[in-house]
Amino acid sequence: MFIAKTDYTLNRKNKDAIVCKTAVGSYVLLKREDFASDEEFEKWKAWSDEDYHISENATRRCSRKNVMLSEKLDNELCCLSAEDILCEKLDGLERIDKVCRIKELLTETQYRRLWLYAVKGISMPKIAKMEGVSTSCVSSSIYGARKKIKKRLREFTK
Q: Which domain holds residue 101?
């Protein structure tokens, strides 16, 4: 299988030139000698690498979202009825309500520390350093918050 070189790889591969694609699809090389100084060349080389990289990532994200017509889902699955949409929204509101009720159980400190740890992925030692407290203080706060949530979840499922 033939894999075409992307503009990004062509530009990255050629260290002493900037690869530019013209409107008709051919390539032009802007060489180091074409610039007033090495610093100017390096500035524009770094910019072009970054620009090509951003464009390539955007193209990849877009192509991953495309669905071939042959893979089209049944109309039944694609078209939700008004009742289905309403039920989905109500389910979402119920989940939000439950989260709000659980949040009310926690102190502001517990909620903040649990959010930083569980959602933002910040380690307990980093949270402790940010707040100027010990790691054990943060750990016990998060442990207490989890314990309260588990207890409330058991009540919800009864």
A: 86-157
Number of domains in the chain: 2
Its pTM surpasses 0.70 = no
pLDDT attached to residue 86:
62
User: Can you list the residues of the chain whose pLDDT is less than 50?
Assistant: 1-3, 70-76
Tokens 């990004």 correspond to 8
The full 3-state SS of 17-78, as one line of letters, equals: EEEEECCCCCEEEEEHHHCCCHHHHHHHHHHHHHHHHHHHHHHHHHHHHCCCHHHCCCHHHH
Q: Are 48 and 28 in contact (CB under 8 A)?
A: no
- Clarify whether residues 57 and 92 are in a common domain: no
25: left (phi over 0), alpha (psi -120 to 50) or beta: left
